[in-house]
Design goal:
Elements lengths: L4 H5 L6 E5 L2 H12 L13 H10 L6 E5 L15 H19 L12
Parallel strand pairs: 1-2
Helix pairs in contact: 2-3
Length: 114
């Protein structure tokens, strides 16, 4: 049987570890989460739409530790010697590179296209 979310939340240390190699993302999420009233100018923040969505769903998830993992560690240490978060970061970078190669013809514009 799979425990319900309420059952999991009442366990002694229920939490998730979320890793990113972008410390700026962690800082922006922490900063945005601390706002009560959000001034309209905050929507000009880099990646506002993504950061805002993360902040909106966080209260509905298990408690989460937002952790930084150093990027490109595999350039100086063999991947199999890295800890799991660093290995997963290497895999994520590889997948991101593959995606960019497959979709290199996509034109990114800051001007909305309808």
């Amino acid at each position: 049987r799979i425990p319900t979310l309420d059952e999991v939340k009442t366990q002694s240390h229920p939490y998730l570890d979320a890793y990113t190699d972008n410390m700026g993302v962690i800082q922006r999420i922490e900063s945005l989460s601390s706002y009560g009233f959000k001034p309209p100018s905050i929507t000009l923040m880099s990646d506002w739409d993504v950061i805002n969505q993360i902040c909106l769903i966080l209260p509905h998830l298990l408690p989460m530790n937002m952790l930084h993992v150093k990027s490109h560690q595999d350039e100086s240490i063999p991947k199999h010697k890295l800890n799991l978060p660093a290995q997963l970061n290497v895999d994520a970078d590889t997948l991101a590179g593959s995606h960019q190669s497959l979709h290199s013809d996509y034109v990114c514009s800051s001007i909305p296209q309808f």
